[in-house]
Design goal:
Largest sheet: 6 strands, antiparallel
Strand content: 15-25%
CATH topology of the domain at 236-402 and 456-529: Phosphatase 2c, domain 1
Order of helices and strands: HHHEEEHEEHHHEEEEEEEEHHHEE
Shape: rod-shaped
Strand order of the largest sheet: 2-3-15-13-8-9
Length: 530
């Protein structure tokens, strides 16, 4: 029964009885061809050049059959794949891809990219079975092989390009700046040109010389001093540079090995010490310059000892010295500094005795400056022993402030017995008389030991600086050419006259301003008053 309760139809199950009826005859085998070639021909007939039906197919009327390629024919060359950066052709473009000529968005801040040349699309490959021009029922021609690319010549056969100086290339092709308001027609933005150089401070001249001829030696170091592993503590650098600023003054200090010592590989005989004792307004700045004897072997060690010992003596009494400088007690300063200097030279003589040397073989000239850090104090104190120079530059004119020292023969007054006067037993010509026998005895021609060299006088000067002054303390290596070569004095006056003091590098270059005939070590200390 059906779901509605109706009775089934009379012959509803006839198809089942006809399908499985044992009386129905079997179809059996057929006489149709069933080989592999027959099946291929059947499939070829069913699938024509236009698919199912159409001209040339089973459903077409009067069409010609297309040439079926031989299965053994080599396939056509594959279609070249398009690179990611290449634009698709009209045949390859997908519906959602923009046409090749459509405008692309660009960044307004950046200049537009140059238009790329059109990309030639490869010719479309016909489907299998289609005829090609110039071929009739035959395999397609093989693609022509590209011509061989010649190999580049080896590197050794390529001549190097001549290099020209930058200045020559700049002169040949100068860049002309674009006029104001000119813009690029493609992007609408002004072309980027070379930025104008910002005006900077005037560069100071480098190392040079004054005079009619250049110096004999080179301006740069040539040889280093020889030493041993046991003498490493006594090494000194070729150049020492230092500086500071306190109160109303600016300090610059430099010590350089001379041209002669640089060429021969000798150590720098000049020593430089810059040190500050105390703090705030009670601080005291000491600058010490020492020069060892020229012919002595350990001259650089004696100069270093002289600076170190005078620095220690001043440091232990810096509070009293700073107070005397601010109060202007000139007499107390002179006596106290002379006592400290004598003690330092006493230690030098003791050191010479320890080394088995004569006192004049282990000594050094010493010159010092004492500067107060109090802005209200402009008193500058100089003291020392030995040669050198003390100069002041005011209004572009140098003045030699070296304290006057009386000459050795300008001694006045009657001689004192025991200090240069003749003994009572001497005759009219200085011969000593034997009182008991009355026989004149000539002086002995043999001298057991040479007389000690005359002591160097102590030098002291205290002066008040004015705004704009420049005080220069230097060793003999710079004092002698400054006194003997007017061109050097004029050049330094021109460089140091501006109100702003030079930097450390500029001050070092000024100290090394060379002069023909002067090749000793140079040490200079400059004080610029604000």
């Amino acid at each position: 029964m059906s779901q509605q309760g109706e009775r089934p139809a009379a012959h509803e199950d006839d198809w089942w009885r006809r399908l499985y009826d044992e009386t129905a005859a079997d179809a059996g085998s057929t006489n149709a061809a069933d080989s592999l070639d027959d099946r291929f021909d059947s499939a070829s007939d069913a699938v024509g050049p236009t698919g199912r039906g159409g001209p040339g197919g089973d459903d077409g009327d009067g069409g010609t059959d297309a040439a079926v390629p031989d299965p053994r024919t080599p396939p056509a060359p594959p279609v070249r794949a398009r690179a990611p950066w290449e634009l698709p052709t009209e045949a390859e473009r997908a519906p959602w891809e923009p046409p090749s000529g459509a405008a692309q968005p660009r960044d307004l801040a950046a200049p537009p990219a140059p238009a790329s040349p059109p990309v030639e699309a490869p010719p479309p490959t016909p489907p299998p079975g289609a005829e090609r021009p110039g071929t009739v029922d035959g395999p397609p021609p093989a693609p022509a092989a590209p011509p061989p690319v010649p190999a580049p010549p080896p590197p050794e056969h390529v001549p190097p390009l001549p290099r020209r100086p930058v200045a020559e290339r700049a002169e040949e092709a100068p860049e002309e700046p674009a006029p104001a308001g000119a813009t690029d027609s493609g992007s609408g933005a002004a072309p980027a040109g070379p930025a104008p150089a910002a005006p900077g401070p005037t560069s100071r001249p480098g190392l040079m010389y004054v005079g009619d001829r250049p110096p004999t030696y080179d301006a740069e170091p040539t040889a280093l001093p020889a030493t041993t592993p046991q003498e490493l503590d006594g090494l000194v650098a070729d150049t020492v540079l230092d500086g500071a600023r306190y109160g109303t003054y600016t300090l610059r200090a430099a010590s350089v090995r001379g041209d002669s010592a640089r060429f021969r590989g000798e150590p720098r005989r000049d020593a430089l010490l810059t040190v500050r004792f105390g703090a705030a307004e009670n601080a005291l700045v000491l600058v010490a310059v020492a020069s060892g004897a020229r012919a002595a072997e350990g001259a650089h060690l004696a100069a270093a000892d002289a600076c170190r010992w005078i620095g220690g003596a001043v440091g232990r009494s810096h509070a009293r010295l700073a107070e005397d400088i601010r109060a202007g007690r000139r007499a107390d300063l002179k006596s106290g500094l002379q006592r400290l200097t004598d003690r330092s030279y006493g230690r030098l003589r003791a050191r010479a005795a320890e080394l088995g040397l004569e006192p004049h073989d282990y000594t050094a000239g010493l010159r010092c400056l004492l500067l107060s850090a109090d802005p209200d104090c402009r008193t500058r104190v100089f003291f020392g022993v030995g040669g050198g120079g003390l100069f002041r530059l005011r209004d572009g004119v140098w003045r030699d402030l070296e304290p006057d020292v009386p000459a050795s023969g300008a001694v006045t007054g009657e001689p004192v017995v025991g200090f240069g006067s003749a003994s009572p037993e001497s005759g009219p010509h200085g011969d000593r008389l034997t009182m008991d026998l009355g026989i004149t005895t000539p002086p002995s021609p043999y001298i057991e030991s040479p007389p000690p060299p005359p002591a160097e006088p102590f030098r002291f000067r205290a002066s008040v600086a004015r705004p704009g002054d420049t005080l220069l303390l230097c060793s003999t290596g710079l004092a002698e050419p400054l006194r003997g070569e007017p061109a050097l004095a004029d050049e330094l006056a021109e460089r140091w006259t501006p109100p702003e003091p030079p930097g450390l590098a500029a001050f070092l270059a000024d100290t090394q301003l060379r002069v023909k005939g002067y090749a000793d070590d140079r040490t200079s200390v400059g004080v610029w008053e604000a």
